Amino acid sequence: MSRRSELSKSLRGFFEKTLTDVEREIYIEKWKVSSEELGSDGEWRIEKRRLYGGLSDCVDIVEVDNGRFSFVVVPTRGMGIWKGRFEGVCLGWNSPVRSLVHPSFVNLEGRDGLGWLDGFNEWIVRCGIGSFGAPGPDKIIDNMGNEKEVMLTLHGKVANIPANTVKARMRLEPPYELSITGRVYERSMFGSDFEMDTEITTTPGADSIKIIDTVRNLRSLPDEMQTLYHCNYGSPFLEEGSHLLAPIQKVVPRDPRAAEGISEFDVFGPPQTGFVERVYFLKMIGDEKGRASVMLVNKDETKATSVSFSVKELPCFTLWKNTSSLKEGYVVGLEPGTSYPNSKAFERKQERVVKLKPGENHRSEINFSVYASQAEVNRAKKRIEEIGKGIEPEILDRPVKEFSPY
Length: 406
Hints:
Layout: H1 3-10, E1 14-21, E2 26-27, E3 31-34, H2 35-38, E4 45-50, E5 60-65, E6 69-74, E7 80-86, E8 89-91, H3 110-113, E9 124-129, E10 136-141, E11 147-152, E12 165-171, E13 178-187, E14 193-202, E15 208-217, E16 223-233, E17 243-245, E18 248-253, H4 256-260, E19 278-284, E20 291-297, E21 304-310, E22 316-323, E23 330-337, H5 344-349, E24 354-356, E25 361-371, H6 374-387, E26 394-395
Parallel strand pairs: 18-26
Antiparallel strand pairs: 1-2, 1-12, 3-4, 4-5, 5-6, 6-7, 7-8, 9-16, 10-11, 12-13, 13-14, 14-15, 15-25, 16-23, 16-24, 17-20, 18-19, 19-22, 20-21, 21-25, 22-23
């Protein structure tokens, strides 16, 4: 019996394969499937394998190729996406951290809470769930019921937590969706107990992928959560003269250094040795469905890539400009989140930290698209310009207390 006929009996209209399930003690090291094998339309494939050697030792990856758009999901690193490629064009960036790093080699408390950077090289990496943002002190209730001060590390834990379950799923009928699903737990005795379900989806021949995350509080007590999507781009979308296009309501520099460049916050320069990051906090305008699209466009507007999200689910947008040398990491980050990446204590004071009741969940849906011609870029520009039509962005030339502690 073929795999298609065998599995479609139990899950009508779908082909599903469990690659990892910790509770059921299922683990498959190597596996692949293709459109040819299942006899479905389009040319696509999904392949799972494990890496060996160096800092990548025992890292699992799942590569999805829809025929035009391929991307590498990393279950070992919180279901992040390492790199993408669309018709030969790379999505992602060249970090000084060249290879994928197993979480066992990342000390989050290193470098005074900056250890997260030792594994940072993905195209799309989640920050959270209990906290994200700059390292800083915060207060918790310890196992004896006492308030205790602790140091929260940069961008939280979820990107360094392996998934408990991973599945590949293919729809056998139009539109023939290809999905990788995963479940990640961020939990501790006398601490938070978060469950994150993610579904990463594309269709054969598509120029986009979609991520839907649902974070659930499994505790019997209310708990705080934060989540931010650190979406990072280098060449060829980032180059001297590249620019940002978005339906912007407000822009605020994070600190005095960012304020120095506020007049050109949305324009990017060439690689510059010794460049120090500049960060801007933005509020976006949603369309009739409450969604905003932020697009990074290359100099001659022949290539672009966009991130689309709900301003209700992810109301805070951060722009990270790090146009340093190519060796140091020439990159820009497009970062929708539930709050801004200040310390959690500061964001709590601004009432931007989400508090989930017992059993309550928070859902985020993000779409990533690529535009590979001037005509496609122009069509996408018009859609974004229509959202912000008639609204003049408010651009502040200095940090303000509502947005920044600097």
